[in-house]
Amino acid sequence: MAERRYRVLAVCSHPVQYTAPFFRCLARHPRIDLQVAYCSLRGAEEGHDPEFGATVKWDVPLLDGYVWIHVPNKGSGDESFFGLNNPGLWKLIRDGNFDAVFCYTGYVRASFWIARLRAWLSRSPFIFGTDSTTLNSMDGREWKRPLKRLLWPYLYRFATQVIAPSSGTKDLMLSLGVPPERISFTPYPVDNDWWLKQSAKVNREEVRASWQIPSGASVVLYCAKLQPWKRPQDLLQAFAKMESKDAFLVIAGEGPLRT
């Protein structure tokens, strides 16, 4: 007798470079029938990314290797609650007979609650999480911390399973009273084969020479969004205090702190 295949829906805000390898891997699993529903195609298509503070289109394939659908967004497209408002998720989940619904939109978007309510009515397990490791707010607003402490234990009760990409997130969920058996440790994947192919195209010594960096010098690389919550300014200040002539700092990124 053939083993049962499970129908899984992943609801995502938009395509991103770190989930595409995961979806490709999941799509190859013999017991999983995966469909990905995107609330926006920002990233795969050129568009303004508010976190980068720039127009962005990724130069790697984000939509290849798995089944996906674009659910039209009736919202404004900005970072507000109704920025993502995808009522088509209701019919998709109602008619899909899914064994599980993963939600990657974040609870601060209307589409999250559309998917959550329809999954609950369909009695489909609803799975979501966070990559936060503290209750601190990225924008530094202190009033959000006690509010999260009060509300998050109730919020994460909505999750059949909480996905935690780091040990820090897992510890945070445990501190909020989420039972350990309802927390799944799910680190972000890295497409090592792709990175190895790209690195093989580069001559290390030539790149160093073009940057006027000696062959034997130490190099610290920062590669992330240039946003305050990523704290590139901390690295810059710490590096300046070293006063070393044998070390170099390379910053690769885009965002409002670039200047």
Salient structural properties:
two-stranded antiparallel ribbon, alpha/beta, Rossmann fold, 30% helix, 259 residues
Describe it for me?
- The protein has 259 residues and is an alpha/beta fold.
- Helices cover 30% and strands 20% of the residues.
- The protein folds into two domains: 6-185, Glycogen Phosphorylase B (Rossmann fold, 3-Layer(aba) Sandwich), CATH 3.40.50; 202-252, no CATH class.
- Helix 2 (88-96) runs parallel beside helix 3 (110-121).
- The protein starts with 5 loop residues before the first strand and ends in a 7-residue tail after the last strand.
- The mean pLDDT is 91.
Fold topology:
Layout: E1 6-12, H1 20-27, E2 32-38, E3 47-49, E4 54-56, E5 68-70, H2 88-96, E6 100-104, H3 110-121, E7 126-129, H4 144-155, E8 161-164, H5 167-175, E9 183-185, H6 192-200, H7 204-210, E10 218-223, H8 232-242, E11 247-252
Parallel strand pairs: 1-2, 1-6, 2-5, 6-7, 7-8, 8-9, 10-11
Antiparallel strand pairs: 3-4
Helix pairs in contact: 2-3
Question: What is shown here, in short?
Answer:
This protein is of the alpha/beta class and 259 residues long. 30% of the residues lie in helices and 20% in strands.
Mean pLDDT: 91
| CATH third-level topology of the largest domain | Rossmann fold
Judged by helices, strands and strand pairing, the structural class is: alpha/beta
**How many structurally independent domains?**
2
Enumerate the spans where pLDDT stays under 50 for 5 or more consecutive residues.
Answer: none
Radius of gyration: 21 Å
Strand content: 15-25%
CATH architecture level-2 label of the largest domain = 3-Layer(aba) Sandwich
CATH superfamily of the largest domain: Glycogen Phosphorylase B
The CATH C-level name of the largest domain is Alpha Beta
Strand order of the biggest β-sheet: 5-2-1-6-7-8-9
H/E series, N to C? EHEEEEHEHEHEHEHHEHE
Q: Describe the biggest sheet?
A: 7 strands, parallel
Number of strand segments: 11
* N- and C-termini, Cα separation: 62 Å
Shape: globular
Q: Percent helix among the residues?
A: 25-40%
Number of helices: 8
